Structures are given as structure tokens and as C-alpha cells.
Amino acid sequence: MNGTAPMPSASPMAQGANPLDALEPNILPEPISWFPPAPGWWILALLIITLITAVVIWLVQRHRRNAYRREALKQLDQIAQSFQFDGDARQLAKNCNLLLKATALQVWPREQVANLVDKDWLDFLARSSGLNDFQSETGQQLGANLYAKPQTEQAGSGEQLITLTRQWISKHSLKKAGMGSNHD
């Protein structure tokens, strides 16, 4: 021995290899399962289901509440066809008046609507729909033509009355009328 330290034997690590390569591979945990979800997701799902249920119930109730409107509009279509066939303005005014009264009685109590005639009736129609046309010549046909002798009128005037009736059926509101209803 000559006084020098012995040289370590050449090993694979000593020759520039990465010592981390000799370690065992990491053991990874199982992936996080999607079920059961965290409590926040349960609450969110419950809120969404509640919201969807509330919207469906509201839509069904609204559809049922407006069934009388759909029926009245069907009857108005029949009245319009009859007017196109015979052109009788007095009969048109009478039929529109009857339809408006029947429709109003579906919403408001009989005591508040049934006895309304002439100007009071037209005021009620205007107030309950926000349509001022009931005070115009078109609206006045509802009162004037009921007692006039039968006549043929220009189709435009009759069409305006049909349009006004259709608008009232579509737009009348308890809030606008400021009266109680059968649905309270």
C-alpha cells in the first residue's frame, strides 16, 4: 500500500446516474370518487330541483288560470267568421257584448259586472284593460248597435270591433280594474 486511500469501486451511481432513479415509485392514492358528492353539491341539487318544481307549478297554474281566455278567443273567432259571412253589425255588436260580459263574469263577481250597461260597461272595459278605444267610435258600437235596426256595415268597422274585443280578452286585468275577483 502506498499511502493513498483506496479508490471506491465504480458503481452505476457514481458515474453520473441520478440517485433518485434508484427509489421505489410513489404509491398514488385512489382517484377521488364523484359519489357521494360534498354537502354543498347536495344543497345545490336540492335548490335546483325546488326551483324547477316551482316554475313548473307556476306555469301549470298560469295555464289553467287563462283557460277561460283561450275559450273566449275561440268563441270570438266563430263570431268573426259569422260576421264575415253575413256582415250584420248589430249581431256582431251583440255577440261581442255577450262574449265580453261572459268573460268578465269568469273573473269578477256577478254583483260587480252583471248590472253594468252603456257608459258604465264601456268604462269598466276600458279600466280593466287599459284600452281607451272603448271610449272611441269603435267601442261605442257595443252600445249603439244593440238597439239599432239590423244593417250591413263596412267590414273595417266590424273588424275593428273584433280586434278591440280580442285585445280586451287578452289584456284585461284585475289590477287594472281595481275590483275584487272570483279568484281571490
UniProtKB/TrEMBL annotation:
InterPro entries: DUF4381. It holds the Pfam family DUF4381. Keywords: Membrane, Transmembrane, Transmembrane helix. The chain crosses the membrane at residues 41-60. This is DUF4381 domain-containing protein. The lineage of its organism: Bacteria, Pseudomonadati, Pseudomonadota, Gammaproteobacteria, Oceanospirillales.
